[in-house]
Design goal:
64% of the residues lie in helices and 0% in strands. It contains 18 helices and no strands. By secondary structure, it is mainly alpha-helical.
Length: 354
Amino acid sequence: MKRLRRDPGNVPAWKPPIRVASGILIFFLSSFGQQTPAERWIGEGHWKRARAAVESRIREAPDDPLANFLLSQVRAAFGDRTTPLALAERAVTLDGRTAKYHRQVAEALGVMAQHSNSFQQLLLARRFRTEIDAALALDPRDVQANRDLLEFYLLAPRIAGGSRRNAAMTADRIAAIDPAEGFLAKARIAAYEKQPAQAEAFLKKAAEVRPASYRAAIALAEFCLAPEHPDLSAAEAAAREALRIDPGRADAYAALAAVYAGRGAWADLDATLADAAREVPDDRYPLYRAAETLLARIEGMDRAERYLRAYIAQEPEGNRPSLTEARRALDRIPRPADAGAPRPLLPRGHPDEA
């Protein structure tokens, strides 16, 4: 989920557009087994930046397996249900010895299964296991592949291989590779089994692991924002920790926006949204989260409308609420009797400030 500041007069910040180097340069590090910039952007939720780099590379080298793999991920993040599987399969065809390419085939199959009938799901489950097993045979320490396998064990019916016991064993394997991810995996199992106290305990342990994990801090903040067990103070503290770890990603600002909208703390909300607009201008998810929280509280409808209109005005980042979802949220806003009533401005310093 980044930039140049102008001075503290709450003047809208200007930042030069992100320039993506040539595809060859962006993908150069992969030859040495290092993470490329495009992969790092994907890991941080900067899907638009990754898309520009990957599409440039695929035009230059359509037979690059890494480019096909990453384009499969990018397309999936932007809601494409047709091309990700073919792209991932092409990456495997070009290089069947790289674990993550098999893992991406499995993930694409998993997405397909979510939109298939029961019979098709059983067939897709078998293919999923073939690919995820191939990925883990090539790289048993691939945390994402192990997380995918854990989800399979939790969600698949027993006849297709689902198993709570195997899910727990997989969480233990993840913990041996990455302690924070291990606690997150155990929290996922606890949440699935509807054990919120145990889930919270694991999330707190994940957030305490050092070096600090942005993902763990955000997971704890989101748990504390859930309406079933709200704790706005704890959510704020966890989001602040995530912001300390990386101020250039949108998730922490989004969590803080939900906290301050939930409290009706308008000055804090305005400041958070202005910071988010300055630091992550290509991801307006914090605006959506603020509006979503206000709609749930049936408060600040004028603000909610303004935030949603600003969100719709820009293409959403990957793996964020779609424009359709935002328009549906906008339709839920009660219309005041006086449609000409003035609306509050966005936070001062926001690029869409009137």
